[in-house]
Design a protein that fits this description.
With 476 residues, the protein is of the alpha+beta class. It has 2 domains: 269 residues, Di-copper center containing domain from catechol oxidase (di-copper center containing domain from catechol oxidase), CATH 1.10.1280.10; 169 residues, Jelly Rolls, CATH 2.60.120. 27% of the residues lie in helices and 20% in strands. The protein is built from 11 helices and 16 strands. The strands form 5 sheets. Strands 5, 6, 7, 11, 14 and 16 form a 6-stranded antiparallel beta sheet that branches. Helix 3 packs across helix 5. The longest helix has 20 residues. The chain is globular. The termini are far apart. Bound molecules: copper (II) ion. The site of copper (II) ion has 4 residues, from helix 7.
Length: 476
C-alpha cells in the first residue's frame, strides 16, 4: 500500500515535470546516481576528454545558428538572455550549463560526458590544452592572457557575506559575480571580455567553476543561507530561448533535479602564491564596501552641476570627461553642505530631501555615465577597481571603500541592450553615517590592475562620474 502510493506520487511528479518539457529536457530527473564534474587536470586523463573534444569540434563545425547542435546557438543564448548584475546570475547560468552539457552528450554520443571545471584558485594558468595555437585545436581561440591570478579574490568567501541574492545586503552573489567572475572574463580578454564569451571554450570551464563555488558557499554553512526552496525567489522560470526554459526551483540544488555534483565542493584556501611584479598585490582583495588601501593621485576634471538626473535620482556632485589609461587616477567629487546633510540623513537610516528636488531619497550610488570603450579596450587584459574615498573622520583617518570594478566585460554587459552605457554602484547607507560633521572632499579612484599582457593608452572614456541620491530603498 505504502509502496503503491509512493510509486504513484513519483509518477505524478515525473509527469508534471515532463509536461512543460522541451526537446532536450532533463532525463536526470529520477536518476539515482549523480554525475560528477571533475577538475580539468583529472578530466583530461579520462576517456571523456576525447568525447569533449569531439563535441566541441562537431558543434563548431555546424554553422546553423538556429540548430541546438551548433556552437553559435549556445553563444547566442548568452548574448540575448544572460542576466548580469541582476538577480539569478548564478541560477540562470546553472541551467544554461546543464542544457549545454546535455547537448554536448547528444552530439558526441557519449552519455557519460560531463562538463569539467577549471579551478583557477589552484591553477591560475589556463590548461595548456586551451592555449596550444595549432589550427586543429578546437579549444584554442586568441586571448590576451592565459593567467588569471590578478582576477582572483577571497572577498566572496568572507564569513560576513551570509545572504545570497543580488539586491540583498551582505550577499555572496553580487560579490562573486564582480570578483572573481567578471575579472576572469576581463583578464583573459579576447572574446571572453564580451557577451559572446561562450564562443571561447574556456568559458564553460570558468562557469562550471563559478557553479561549483556556489555549491561550496552553500555547503560552507556558518550562517550562510539560500532563499528557502519554498520562497517566491524560486518561482517562475529561467528563459534560454522561447522554447527552452527551466523552472527556477530546479536550479536550487545540483543534486535534486539536475543530478550532478562536483569533484571538490569546498572553498579555495587562499590565493595562488605566484604574482606578477607588474601587479598591485592584494588590492583586488578588498571586498565591496570594505576598506581599500592606497589611493592614486587626483586628476583635474570639469565639474558637472548638481541636478535631478531622473524622477528618482539626484546628482549631488559630478565630474565630466574622465579618460582611463594604464595609470590609476582619482576623480574629485566636491559635495556641498546640502548634499552632505542629505548623505548624513541617509546614513542615519532615514530619507533625505533637497531644496532642489521634490523626492525623498533613501540610497546613494556612484554612476558612470556615457561610458565609451575603444577597440584596444574591448580586447581586455586589464580592469579598474572602483573605490569611493570619503572625507576624513573626526580623528583625521581617511576612509576608502571598494565599490566594484569596471572593465571591458562589465561595459559589454551594460551595452548589449543598446542606449548609452551606464554603470551603477550602490553604496551601503551606513557608510555615510555622521557625514555632516566631516570636512573635506570625496573622490572616486580608478585603480588599474593588469594581466601579464595589457593594452596601453586610453581605453575607456567616462562622460560623467557622479555621486547620486536615489529614491530606491535598498541596502544592498
Ligand atoms: Cu561569465
Amino acid at each position: 500500500m505504502t509502496h503503491d502510493l509512493m510509486g504513484r506520487r513519483h509518477f505524478i511528479q515525473q509527469s508534471a515535470i515532463l509536461l512543460g518539457a522541451s526537446a532536450i529536457l532533463p532525463k536526470a530527473f529520477g536518476q539515482t546516481t549523480l554525475m560528477v564534474r571533475p577538475e580539468w587536470q583529472a578530466f583530461k586523463t579520462t576517456p571523456r576528454y576525447d568525447s569533449f573534444l569531439r563535441a566541441v569540434r562537431l558543434m563548431k563545425a555546424n554553422t546553423q545558428a538556429t540548430d541546438p547542435r551548433s556552437w553559435s546557438y549556445w553563444t547566442n543564448i548568452h548574448l540575448n538572455r544572460c542576466p548580469h548584475s541582476i538577480p539569478y546570475f548564478f541560477a540562470w547560468h546553472r541551467g544554461y550549463l546543464y542544457y549545454f552539457e546535455r547537448q554536448m552528450r547528444a552530439v558526441c554520443g557519449d552519455p557519460q560526458l560531463v562538463l569539467p571545471y577549471w579551478d583557477y584558485y589552484t591553477n591560475p594558468t589556463m590548461p595548456a590544452e586551451f592555449t596550444n595555437p595549432s589550427t586543429d585545436n578546437p579549444l584554442y581561440v586568441s586571448r590576451v592572457n592565459n593567467n588569471v591570478r590578478q582576477a582572483l579574490s577571497m572577498a566572496p568567501f568572507s564569513s560576513t557575506l551570509t545572504n545570497f541574492p543580488t539586491n540583498s545586503p551582505n550577499a555572496f552573489e553580487p560579490s562573486f559575480e564582480s570578483a572573481p567572475h567578471n575579472l576572469v572574463h576581463n583578464i583573459i580578454g579576447g572574446v571572453m571580455a564580451d557577451m559572446l564569451s561562450p564562443t571561447d571554450p574556456i568559458f564553460w570551464l570558468h562557469h562550471a567553476n563559478v557553479d561549483r563555488l556556489w555549491v561550496a558557499w552553500v555547503s560552507a554553512g556558518n550562517g550562510r543561507k539560500m532563499p528557502s526552496i519554498g520562497s517566491s525567489y524560486w518561482s517562475g522560470s529561467h528563459i534560454y530561448t522561447s522554447s527552452l526554459t527551466m523552472p527556477r526551483s530546479y536550479t536550487y540544488s545540483t543534486r535534486t533535479n539536475l543530478g550532478y555534483r562536483y569533484q571538490n565542493e569546498s572553498f579555495p584556501t587562499g590565493l595562488p602564491l605566484a604574482r606578477s611584479v607588474l601587479s598591485t598585490p592584494d588590492l583586488v582583495q578588498a571586498a565591496p564596501n570594505e576598506p581599500a588601501p592606497m589611493q592614486p593621485p587626483l586628476g583635474s576634471f570639469r565639474i558637472s552641476p548638481t541636478r535631478p538626473t531622473s524622477d528618482q535620482t539626484f546628482a549631488i556632485s559630478g565630474a565630466l570627461d574622465v579618460g582611463l589609461d594604464e595609470t590609476s587616477i582619482g576623480v574629485q567629487l566636491p559635495v556641498g553642505a546640502e548634499g552632505m546633510r542629505a548623505l548624513a540623513q541617509i546614513g542615519a537610516g532615514g530619507a533625505a530631501t533637497l531644496p532642489a528636488g521634490p523626492q525623498r531619497y533613501r540610497s546613494v550610488q556612484v554612476v558612470l555615465d556615457d561610458v565609451m570603450i575603444n577597440e584596444a579596450g574591448k580586447r581586455g587584459g586589464y580592469y579598474y577597481r572602483v573605490d569611493l574615498n570619503l572625507p576624513p573622520d573626526p580623528s583625521g583617518r581617511l576612509q576608502a571603500i571598494s565599490i566594484g570594478t569596471v572593465g571591458a566585460f562589465e561595459i559589454s554587459g551594460a551595452a548589449h541592450h543598446g542606449g548609452p552605457v551606464r554603470l551603477r554602484y550602490r553604496i551601503r547607507r551606513a557608510v555615510f553615517a555622521g557625514m555632516a560633521h566631516r570636512i573635506g572632499l570625496m573622490s572616486v579612484s580608478f585603480v588599474r590592475v593588469d594581466g601579464d599582457q595589457k593594452p596601453t593608452g586610453q581605453v575607456i572614456g567616462l562622460g560623467e562620474v557622479r555621486l547620486e541620491l536615489s529614491t530606491e530603498d535598498n541596502d544592498a
